[in-house]
Amino acid sequence: MFNTVSGKKIAVLGFAFKKDTGDTRETPAIDVCKGLLGDKAKISIYDPQVSEDQIQRDLAMNKFDWDHPIHLQPMSPTAVKEVTVTW
């Protein structure tokens, strides 16, 4: 990758914490995706059990915010700009 992932499209196969569930609480995929986004990579996520809306919310949250009610967490449109969810 020429020592950088900047501008490269990377596929993430599976986002949920456990197989065959839509449970994304504390999933390592959130930190991995945020790290890649921090390095300016373009991410394409595939997980048939997790909705696109849930993935967008998880990536927009600060660490450990999942423990608080959803209506208290603002969505940041720039936080997940380089993310696409595929089916």
From TrEMBL:
<dbReference type="InterPro" id="IPR014027">
    <property type="entry name" value="UDP-Glc/GDP-Man_DH_C"/>
</dbReference>
<dbReference type="InterPro" id="IPR028356">
    <property type="entry name" value="UDPglc_DH_euk"/>
</dbReference>
<dbReference type="GO" id="GO:0051287">
    <property type="term" value="F:NAD binding"/>
</dbReference>
<protein>
    <submittedName>
        <fullName>(wild Malaysian banana) hypothetical protein</fullName>
    </submittedName>
</protein>
<dbReference type="GO" id="GO:0003979">
    <property type="term" value="F:UDP-glucose 6-dehydrogenase activity"/>
</dbReference>
<dbReference type="Pfam" id="PF03720">
    <property type="entry name" value="UDPG_MGDP_dh_C"/>
</dbReference>
<dbReference type="InterPro" id="IPR036220">
    <property type="entry name" value="UDP-Glc/GDP-Man_DH_C_sf"/>
</dbReference>
<feature type="domain" description="UDP-glucose/GDP-mannose dehydrogenase C-terminal">
    <location>
        <begin position="11"/>
        <end position="82"/>
    </location>
</feature>
